[in-house]
Design goal:
Blueprint (H helix, E strand, L loop, with lengths): L4 E4 L2 E5 L4 E6 L10 H16 L5 E6 L10 H6 L5 H19 L5 E5 L3 E2 L1 H7 L3 E5 L6 E2 L13 H9 L1 H9 L3 E2 L1 H6 L5 E3 L2 H14 L21 H17 L4 H16 L4 H16 L2 H14 L8 H6 L1
Parallel strand pairs: 3-4, 4-5, 5-7, 6-8, 7-10
Antiparallel strand pairs: 1-2, 2-3, 8-9
Helix pairs in contact: 1-3, 3-11, 5-6, 6-10, 9-10, 10-11
């Protein structure tokens, strides 16, 4: 691997003299989105990193003001009954890139220079260390519950293991977003930087100090999550979705939140990769609900340019 800038589709990519790679995501369009371009870019990056071991670690950041926006709502809202298998394969492929990232056997730092919501923050969770720029407008979190779904790129499983069930619950069931100070206080990030230069310096310093970094869930001595629930707690939460589906049919948002809670609880009692697969199945279950499809479509309609109103002559001709 050259000790210089390298052309890599979807990335501004360089390696410094210490062997630290800085990969800044730069997808087509104004904002980085977790769409097909993201998948192609991640395949390019990971293929490059896996083919060469001549680097000390990776700083993952963004070349745009927003670190990485959420998932591809257009794809999700277009999905139809009978496509469950294809959806499962799609989300498992997406998760595989984040899994490969955190298992490179090199330290990976998320240098968060702009807001990271939904899939953006899920990507940060797949890094071994998270440093955010001290920017007043920067927000972090998993707002998927607003669409009646869940953070399906590993967000539920990773955040619950990182924070524990009780501390993770507001982010999964209420879509709570944090500014940088709140994110630091509540454990969503590990450190803050005052400017872009310090963000890069701190990221590289952490890599040099932690050459053997591993995710807590990938360490041999932590196969069982420290925050594991008791059998009684788990059993009570497992019963909630079915009860709510019967008694709260008029409150689909409450059912989606409860389904998130149940998944978070059960994931703590599962093997990590099995929990990721189960998370995908629950996501597809929620995507099939009318509530989720309506919420996603409403959001997309608000974001799309308003259609021009017909003129008086056009209305008369009609």
């Amino acid at each position: 691997m050259d000790t210089s800038t390298k052309t890599l589709p979807g990335w501004q990519f360089n390696r410094d003299n210490d062997g630290i790679v800085v990969a800044a995501l730069d997808l087509p369009g104004k904002v980085n989105i977790m769409n097909d371009d993201f998948i192609d870019a991640m395949e390019c990056l990971l293929s490059e990193l896996e083919a060469s071991r001549d680097y000390a670690g990776v700083v993952l950041t963004s070349a745009k003001p927003v670190f990485l926006a959420g998932g591809d709502l257009k794809r999700m809202v277009r999905s139809a009954p009978g496509q469950e298998s294809a959806l499962f394969d799609y989300f498992q492929q997406l998760k595989s890139y984040l899994r490969r990232l955190e298992r490179l056997n090199r330290p990976v730092v998320a240098a968060i220079n702009g807001s990271a919501l939904g899939g953006g923050y899920e990507t940060c969770l797949a890094c071994h260390h998270r440093i955010a720029l001290r920017e007043p407008r920067l927000r972090l979190g998993l707002p998927e519950i607003e669409f009646g779904i869940l953070a399906g790129a590993g967000g539920v499983v990773r955040l619950t293991r990182l924070l524990g069930f009780e501390r993770a619950t507001p982010y999964l069931t209420q879509g709570t977003l944090e500014d940088v100070m709140g994110a630091l206080e509540h454990g969503l990030v590990d450190d803050l930087a005052d400017d872009a230069q310090q963000l890069l310096e701190k990221s590289k310093a952490w890599i040099r100090a932690n050459p053997q970094a591993r995710q807590p869930w990938d360490k041999p001595d932590n196969a069982t999550p420290a925050h594991r629930l008791s059998a009684n707690q788990r059993r009570a939460l497992m019963l909630e979705p079915a009860r709510l589906s019967r008694l709260m049919a008029g409150h689909p948002a409450a059912f989606a939140a409860q389904r998130n809670m149940a998944l978070a609880a059960e994931s703590l009692n599962m093997d990590f990769d099995a929990a990721l697969r189960y998370e995908t199945r629950v996501l597809i279950e929620l995507l099939r609900t009318d509530h989720a499809r309506e919420r996603m479509q409403e959001f997309l309609d608000r974001k799309s340019p308003r259609k021009a109103q017909p003129s008086e002559a056009e209305r008369s001709a009609a």
